[in-house]
Design brief:
It is built from 3 helices and 11 strands, in the order βββαββαββββββα. The chain is mostly beta strands and 197 residues long. The structure holds the ligand Nc1nc2c(c(=O)[nH]1)N[C@H]1C(S)=C(S)[C@@H](COP(=O)(O)O)O[C@H]1N2 and molybdenum atom. Ligand MTE is lined by residues 29-34, 78, 112, 114, 116, 145-146, 158-159, 161-164.
């Protein structure tokens, strides 16, 4: 079996099997934000799962921290072609949050403080695939990277991982969010290179 070290870019010929097609490795952590960084005090922070009409459940900062917090080691892939391997995060699984929410809707619109939105099927948030991330690399999430809390959905392109997450809106149909209205793919699988329309 070939031994492929992390950091091998495949320039010698062989592709790095950890790198989706068309991606390159980066060691730093680029900041990509469509607008200014909102600063939300944790005392004012709330996260809710809701429908158009009703709030199904709300968590304060302290209520969220009373839930199990998991370690997540994962690769992340931005549609602008950088990938970062072996990143480490801590956060609350969406499985934990949805365990006490009843819904028949199959789609979710993520809403951020500051107004950013992105759409994702509910199935992609469940089954150990998505978290409300609170820490990166052992420290509280930097505001530029989405602190106090961001969505982390590492199996999809990173624009789906909404920074400054404020809530999830349940929807019966798949509606486009901010980037999806501006030409990005509705789903965004990096292994299938689902970048744009
Ligand atoms: N609220 C919000 N979330 C966002 C964005 C944004 O502009 N606003 N940009 C997205 C994009 S395009 C990417 S690649 C990642 C970048 O996260 P980073 O700045 O922590 O690298 O956040 C995603 N989440
Ligand atoms: Mo991105």
């Amino acid at each position: 079996m070939a031994v492929i070290s992390r950091g091998f870019t495949g320039r010698g010929g062989e592709a790095n099997p950890e790198l989706p097609p068309g991606q390159y490795l980066t060691a730093d952590f680029p900041v990509l934000s469509a607008g200014p960084t909102p600063h939300i005090a944790t005392a004012d922070w709330q996260f809710s799962i809701r429908t158009d009409a009703d709030t199904l459940q709300t968590w304060s900062w302290d209520e969220l921290h009373a839930l199990p917090i998991e370690n997540i080691d994962t690769d992340i892939h931005c549609v602008t072609r950088w990938s970062k391997l072996g990143t480490s995060w801590r956060g609350v699984s969406l499985d934990t949050l949805f365990a006490t929410v009843e819904t028949t809707d199959a789609y979710v619109m993520a809403h951020s403080y500051g107004g950013y939105t992105t759409n994702v099927p509910l199935a992609d948030l469940l089954g150990g695939k998505a978290w409300i991330a609170l820490e990166f690399d052992g420290v509280n999430l930097d505001p530029e990277h989405g602190g106090p809390a961001r969505l982390l959905i590492p199996h999809l392109y990173f624009w789906k991982s909404a920074k400054w997450i404020r809530g999830l809106e349940m929807q019966s149909t798949d509606e486009p969010g901010f980037w999806e209205q501006n030409g990005y793919n509705m789903y965004g699988d990096p292994w299938l290179e689902q970048r744009y329309w």
